[in-house]
UniProtKB/TrEMBL annotation:
Positions of transmembrane segments: 198-220, 232-253, 259-279, 291-310, 316-339
InterPro entries in the cross-refs: GPCR_Mth-like (IPR052808), Methuselah_N_sf (IPR036272)
Superkingdom, natural source: Eukaryota
Gene coding for it: 106088051
Protein name in UniProt: Methuselah N-terminal domain-containing protein
Annotated GO CC locations: plasma membrane
Database matches in PANTHER family: G-PROTEIN COUPLED RECEPTOR MTH-LIKE 1-RELATED, G-PROTEIN COUPLED RECEPTOR MTH-LIKE 14-RELATED
Membrane-protein topology: Multi-pass membrane protein
Signal peptide: 1-20
Species the sequence originates in: Stomoxys calcitrans
Length: 367
């Protein structure tokens, strides 16, 4: 009986403590909520940011509503887009019961700033897709609006102060999902620049491939370098070389990206995995300067790849970033084969590559 009373007392004590803790947590949560609300009110009341774009320079070219201003619809009335979600994103017009409701806004453009005049307009429709080569935007992943002169205002969802105004486009609703798509034309010059940028990066990757193959072969062939570290480095270089080779084939010869894309991702991720194994193998050595330098280069190129992915375009700094990503094989060669100790081992192996080494027992049998 005493044990039951003691157990019941402990349960009541624990329950009271839990209830008190829960109430205290709710109290703290309420306090935090009030503080957050007060901070938001203070922040919004201090006029820290201007209410409009008057402090920015107004763009010289402004959209003006005229008689020739039209909203460009891709498909005829009573039809909408049907997107084939493949590597080419082919679009065709099909009959639909969906109503197309596209708002037209009145804006004033400033330097990296857009001021909405808060008045909606109605523009007549112009039917047809004017594009031969195009980009495809949708309102679930991208941000675009039609302005008063019928142009398409495309804004970068990752940087609010970046936008572009497109004249050649068409806009419509996808039949199955109801998603609004905008088809923006690519001019011949832009297409040529993008194609040249891809080919340059692919050529740099082809330059990196012999460097990576040499690093892999040397560490696999020379006995003094054929250790756990050397074999890991050999496999790592082979994975990156294979990924670069497949990437170059796809973009130079315009092969099907679907099958090769998974293979490229696999080998690039394998490259990072074996680099992680290389770091684990040398973690006990604080003075592993080669691994630290390669890690710094990998982190830098990885960040550059993220920057170029979210900031597409022909800007020169983006092209330079892609070029740095393409020459990682040269960096691996310089780091792991040009250092003094390994260079001496490689030169000694090269000078002795045709000599015959006789063991002691073989020499006695020969005598």
């Amino acid at each position: 009986m005493t044990h039951k009373i003691g157990t019941l007392f402990l349960l009541l004590l624990l329950l009271s403590l839990c209830t008190a803790g829960e109430l205290e947590s709710k109290k703290d949560l309420t306090t935090l909520t009030n503080v957050k609300t007060e901070n938001e009110y203070i922040k919004s009341s201090t006029n820290q940011f201007p209410e409009n774009c008057s402090q920015r320079e107004k763009c010289k070219t402004q959209p003006i509503n005229t008689r020739n201003s039209h909203l460009r619809k891709c498909c005829p009335i009573g039809e909408s887009l049907s997107i084939a979600h493949d590597d080419q994103n082919r679009a065709m017009c099909v009959s639909t019961s969906r109503n197309v409701n596209i708002k037209v806004i009145n804006v004033t453009l400033y330097d990296n700033c857009i001021e909405d005049m808060e008045s909606e307009l109605s523009l007549p429709l112009e039917i047809g897709n004017p594009c031969n080569t195009s980009f495809l935007y949708n309102d679930e992943e991208d941000l675009f609006l039609v302005v008063q002169d019928g142009s398409l205002l495309v804004m970068d969802p990752y940087a609010n102060d970046t936008y572009s105004v497109e004249k050649k486009y068409c806009i419509d609703v996808e039949n199955s999902s109801g998603t609004t798509y905008a088809i923006v034309c690519i001019t011949a010059v832009e297409d040529h620049i993008n194609r040249s940028q891809i080919v340059i990066v692919a050529i740099l990757m082809l330059i990196s491939i012999p460097c990576l193959v040499l690093v892999s072969y040397v560490h696999f062939r020379i006995k003094e370098l054929k250790s756990v570290h050397g074999m890991t480095l050999s496999i790592m270089s082979g994975c990156l070389a294979t990924g670069y080779f497949l990437y170059s084939l796809v973009h130079i010869f315009k092969l099907d990206e679907r099958g090769f894309g998974y293979a490229v991702q696999f080998f690039i991720l394998s490259y990072y995995f074996w680099f992680f194994c290389l770091c684990c193998n040398t973690s006990f050595n604080v003075c592993a300067k080669c691994i630290s330098l390669l890690g710094l280069i990998l982190i830098s190129t990885w960040l550059l790849e993220i920057v170029t992915f979210y900031s597409p375009g022909p800007q020169i700094y983006l092209i330079l970033m892609d070029m740095v990503n393409g020459v990682q094989g040269v960096f691996v060669l310089l780091i792991f084969l040009i250092i003094r100790r390994r260079r001496r081992i490689i030169f000694r192996w090269w000078s002795d590559r045709g000599s015959l080494v006789l063991e002691k027992l073989e020499l006695e049998a020969f005598n």
